[in-house]
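User: Hi! I'm working on a homework problem where we have to compare a predicted structure to a textbook description. Could you give me the structure for the chain below?
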Amino acid sequence: MALTAAKSYRTLSGLPLDPVYSQPIDSGKPGAFPYTRGIHETMYRGKLWTMRQFAGFATAEDTNARYHYLLAQGQSGLSVAFDLPTLMGYDSDHAASQGEVGKCGVAISSLADMETLFRGIPLGDVTVSMTINSPASILWAMYLAVAEQQGVSWDRVSGTLQNDILKEYIAQKEYIYPPRPSMRLVTDSIEFAAQHTPRFNPISISGYHIREAGSTAAQELAFTLRDGIEYVDWALERGLPIDAFAPRLSFFFNAHSDFFEEIAKYRAARKIWAYTMLDRYGAKDEKSWKLRFHAQTAGCSLTWQQPQNNIVRTAVQAMAAVLGGCQSLHTNSLDEAYALPSEHAVTVALRTQQVIAYETGVTAEPDPLGGSYFLEKLTLDVEEAANKYIRQIDEMGGMIPAIERGFPQTEIANASYEFQHSVELRESVIVGVNKFTEKDEKPIELLQIDETAERRQIEKLRKVKARRSASEVEKALAALKRASEGTENTTPFILDAVRAYATVGEIAASMGEVFGSYTEIAIL
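Assistant: Happy to help. Predicted structure tokens:
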């Protein structure tokens, strides 16, 4: 049957597709600038991606047990999910924390919790990613303090701090302070990492949450890379040489369901970033040109209807991330549309990565899809669409002015509406939701959060406050407040407060007295 142009075909995100592709496009070789085909010449022949399952629930003791279980199952890196109070800079005993302690991640209120979280886990040998943003510098200080206690020097500590505050204003909305003082804290972390933690990534510039909010693939790519440009500009204004910090910038992308568009997105990301670092900033170090990224399969694609289908969705999305050249990967669990992952579900999710790694043969070739007429052209199309957005934001004066006028928020909201509308009209098919549905589905077994977790966590916090030196806490918080009022890097002062067992809430509030709070202005 001959292909015809009678029907208009598009990617799931809306990019137009030709009836057939047959024009060769040379995108170079793996490991060669601009790294469209991967940042390493041998890719997974040399080393597999890090299998880094995101985990955290209830108390530090509960999550520590899950970490030991995951490592025993063959996971090669850890990723910390924090609960909502911690993400918002509240202690577990704050009135606003009631009912949320330990529900969507682990509750961390003081250094004592972080000590428990990594008990028996050698931080000099295991890489750890922490998904925390507005209070990121506080949780990072706790992590570094635990490394000190373990006798691990900071130059051996390896991992990633998300610390991407701009996407909070754009998509996730877990912010505390206004944009500019928040950007100062991020820049403080980048500067401190450049000086003291050469193997640790002080920021993971995240498109994941932008995509989860409903963006297209091109919007995810554009807004993420433009956020990255903003962080670079602030670090340069601080006086840091580009090659002193750019090699430690990392990225975090969604792995969604349009298989080829996602692979094209990753390839375009590397190409755009390489030219940005070289042409826009004049970076000389090849490591500065290379975009390294973590991927997570799309949580928003998972359905509570027919949850077993989520295993298939996750496998396809994970394969796209691998064929797109990710450096680390989290695969979602089949039950995440209901609750936090059960032990069984998270094991299946990890096994999905292991099957891809060891049974499919995709690791034998650095870029198996390179040279595909369709994929190479789609890469160029995604690149062009993303660069158009980047130019628009440049013309607005940067990402902060764009956020203040609601530009990325509005673009994402419109894209989200259009997709949901297409689902309701059944123009877009969600298997088990608007097509191939079933009646009387059997429930699946879910992880139940121990309802005593909140009480146990608050009691632990009470004991920490009782045994610490109140005068040392007061002294450290006063010094941090003075530093916040001035221009000094706040990180050493946060470390001092953490070592004195000041809590997340106390430290956040101390800086808040200087920085103020932020409320988003409704964009009509």
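For your comparison, note the following. Residues 1-6 have pLDDT under 50 and may be disordered. The CA atoms of residues 438 and 462 lie 50 Å apart. Good luck with the assignment!
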